[in-house]
Amino acid sequence: MNQKSFIPKDGWQGLKENFSADALSGFLVFLLALPLSLGIAKASEFPPIYGLLTAMIGGIIVSFIAGSPLTIKGPAAGLIVIVAGSVHELGHGNAELGWHLALGAVVVAGIIQVLFGVLKLGKFSDIFPLSAVHGMLAAIGIIIMSKQIHILAGVTPLTLDGKAMVEPLELLALLKTTIPNFFAHKEVALIGLTSLTIVFGWPRLKVNFLKRIPAPLVVLVVSIFMAMAFGMKNTGNFKPLLTFDKGFFDILGVNVSFEGFQQTGTFIKYVIMFALVGSLEALLTVKAIDMMDPYKRKSNYNKDLMAVGFGNILAGIFGGLPMISEVARSSANVNAGGRTRWANFFHGIFIFIFLIFAVSFSNLIPMTALAAMLIGVGWKLAHPKEFGHMFKIGADQLVVFLVTIVVTLMSDLLIGIGLGIITEIILHLFRGVGFKNLFKARYKVDHQVIHVEGAIVFTNYLKLQKSLQTFDLSQQIHLDVTKCHFIDHNAIESIQQLQAEFKFNDGMLDVIGLQHFKNVHGSVHHSATRKKK
Q1: DSSP 399-449
Q2: Cα 172 to Cα 141: distance, rounded to the nearest angstrom
Q3: What is the pTM of this model?
Q4: How high is the mean pLDDT in each 10-residue block of the chain (533 residues)?
Q5: How many other CB atoms are there within 10 angstroms of residue 498's CB atom?
Q6: Rounded Cα distance, 283 and 485, in Å
Q7: Contact 417, 133 (CB under 8 A)
Q8: 32 within 8 A of 329, measured Cβ to Cβ
């Protein structure tokens, strides 16, 4: 029986048929999600236990209404910068107040995400140029590391007025003070460096059995034993250990406040960022996991967006972080053999069980260990290979990538990705794409052939995509681009994904004339300008 003929059943029958595979995968994902959810919440200036609350809601509740069978819902490192910024700005340095006010923005953003799904706007994830999206994620990675390197050494960066420092450029500048004094708190630094070694070294192990154990779990266990051996304790203003002030049943209750709307401009800014960046990250994850799915199932993007929005409404009301379909945990689910949405459900159940006993772990987990995990996450987002990959696609894409990073570091994510998109459009205009052609693809349909003229770019691709998707995917369809003078790499990647869908359904999408396009390195698979004859 091939994978195409065997598609795991969903619903209650699926629970029975796939119980062992999904329960095991859910447990393995839980082991990864546990320390990351705590670390993400702490880095976001939220009470750490509420990171677990979001993961629990994402698993136990959202799994039943999600449009994607394999993605894991929960708090994401990609939103740390936005969440921490909302707490700081809305609370004016008062973390407790900022948390309650930020929750109001999370709830409103969740409502907007539900509306995005109802209006079937999931498809608009394709209009964001990949170079700008990767630039946004790289900037987030740099910002995460800029804060967590200080935490690794047991230092909490403060501004001159004693408030938590959040500006990434200031945090990066402060490294010149933190690094020379890295061992001021020797035990903290040793635990931090050991944890960092595990984060980066564990995936390189040659023993497959050990590699299956999530590195964050190893960090958690090793760091707890080291802290106990050192006799580490929270004393006065020096608090190197994570503390759960309340247990699960103590935290249940409404924590949201909508008084932040009185700061209208700031409140709306964060609502937009939660809704826009959260939706974009969630949709990109669903798209990536669909490509990894061994059964090649097609997720319902709009339904999944509504599910994430509903989850954010619930999480925001009760005090949790905003959630998305999270890529690291979702990838782990696929690799662990998860088959259906029940894997996400079981991950939530295990989180719930831990939450009941969470208070027993109070004053055991070193903050520096969580910082090491987040540095690992930040490094993956801003890996040097990303810069090389962008240059390989084309020097113009590297420019868009760098503009997005620099502007984000100097201002915020919304302005950063906005200017990244504008830069991409300006570069397309210089490449000879007419202004009208930017937003309207010129094509005609002749039976089984679609003839395209002019240019295919990220801003005009959606209508062309809609026409291609009207055909039966089991048919042979021809896309003729011989009269195009420019195709950007975003459009080419989207076309290639559509080709894979046709192929899986025993059809074929034949792109005529693609061989006439190349980037500066000669590849026909990336952003392309027509070769001169």
Answers
A1: HHHHHHHHHHHHS-HHHHHHHHHHHHHHHHHHTT--HHHHH--EEEEETTE
A2: 13
A3: 0.89
A4: 64 88 95 94 94 97 95 94 95 94 98 96 84 92 94 84 79 92 94 96 87 89 96 89 85 95 96 95 90 86 96 98 94 93 97 89 90 94 93 91 95 90 94 91 93 93 89 92 91 86 87 72 44 46
A5: 18
A6: 30
A7: yes
A8: yes
